[in-house]
Design brief:
The chain is of the alpha+beta class. The chain has 1 helix and 8 strands; from the N terminus they run H-E-E-E-E-E-E-E-E. It has one domain.
């Protein structure tokens, strides 16, 4: 039988050790820091993307609500009038068959859109971009251009939509 040679690895005998070395501590810290950096980067980027998606969805929901209300009032109206106010606000008024005012929509310079019906006023949005949102007449119809934006962490989320409202009672 041949004598067996022991293969000696270049590892110290762990039973005789009294502690850990500085190099081992540094190695462990580097591994932990790298793992934390990867985890943090993935977490933050995904959180920012999710936040942007949620805000974009909320802005589209606001725009859809505004367009729906404008369309309802416009279809009920006989005439639509755009008013130029001295304060620079953009205003559109809807009138029924008898000439009574149905509703008033006002885009203010501070970025809010208000709907007034009789004595009741409601804020539809605080996220309107004043310079890019307009009411325009096209014959009896109203063209509405809305641009909404909101700041999310380090960037702005912006959406834009257009719609045309034609009064149903125009010919009656």
């Amino acid at each position: 039988m041949l004598p067996q040679k022991r293969i000696k690895f270049f590892l110290p005998d762990l039973a005789s050790r009294q502690g850990i070395t500085f190099v081992e501590v540094l190695t462990a810290l580097v591994i932990i820091a790298a793992a934390f950096g990867v985890f943090y980067g993935v977490f933050v980027m995904n959180w920012m993307a999710l936040e942007g998606y949620i805000v974009r969805t909320q802005l589209w929901d606001e725009a859809s609500t505004i367009i729906r209300k404008l369309t309802e009032d416009g279809r009920f109206s006989k005439t639509i009038e755009i008013v130029e106010l001295s304060d620079g606000n953009k205003t559109v008024r809807f009138f029924d068959r008898s000439g009574e005012q149905v509703a008033v929509y006002t885009i203010t310079a501070d970025g809010s859109l208000q709907r007034t019906e009789g004595a009741n006023s409601s804020l539809l949005s605080k996220n309107i971009q004043f310079g890019e949102s307009t009411f325009e007449k096209d014959g009896p119809a109203l063209k509405v251009k809305l641009s909404l934006q909101e700041q999310v962490i380090t960037r702005r989320i912006r959406i834009s939509t257009e719609n045309e409202v034609f009064p149903r009672n125009y010919l009656n």
